[in-house]
From TrEMBL:
InterPro entries: Uncharacterised_LppY/LpqO. Residues 1-19 form the signal peptide. This is DUF1259 domain-containing protein. Keywords: Signal.
Amino acid sequence: MKKAAILIMGFLTVFYCSAQRNDWAAVEKVFGKKGTVQGDVFKISYPRTDITVKVNSFTVAPGLALGSWVGLMSMNKNMGTGKIMQNDQATMMGDLVLLDTEVPSALKKLVEAGLTITAIHNHLINETPNVKYVHFAGSGDKVKLAEAIKSVLEVTATPLTAPQSAPQAAVDWSGVEEILGPGKYSGMLLQYSFPRKEKLTESGMTMPSSMGMGTGINFQKNGDSAAITGDFVLLADEVNPVIKILIDNGITPTALHNHMLHDQPRLYMMHFWAVGNPENLAKGLSEALAATNHQSIKK
């Protein structure tokens, strides 16, 4: 009987995951490649593999800081609004990584497509060539939203198909993971996402961490050193304590701004950059996280 129950649960899990994937099949057809599904959120990324960006003399991997992304969250549930939406409705958020010369045409297309521009700014400093980040939002039929943002991507030089990835040697991140907890491996990168403990909303809808509401931290190994970048998602009273902690640990804040227009509580994104000993940098980041209301991912 117990074995049968386990088999049934396994079947239901596979069925549920398959149903989740099928919910986004039409969206994936628009984008022309697979995304990832986490709960009600579909996410797809477009790394800028077509450009070589350096910060000072450090070559930035596309996955470190040069990935455009689109997140679509199904609105078929309550989502904190008190309304039950149709299954094809979604809210969309994301940001585009653009060269300066691409910004005007991308903005024009976003407006023509009926999407909302929520921020235009830098994330890095001292980078060559200069890179800007355009954040956007929208809501409505999820396939039409996908078509709209795809039309914006098409007026840029962003590669729209997944690049072939060359095999890379394994990187030992054990020292960093001992400090920050287990991360996600991607080639020479180690990536983290730390959710905040508060309920976060945008335009009245509850937003999960996977919709760009969590603090993201990325490491890129280079010999015995590593570059770090990402953004802390902060409340107003946390901003300056975190700035001090980062500076005291040799980490440079590179931008402070908002990504959204109607978020509650009001959130401030602080981007940062440093190159140095990975474990020392991890200790500084851990100290900064401890000064905020983030969830720990350490086991």
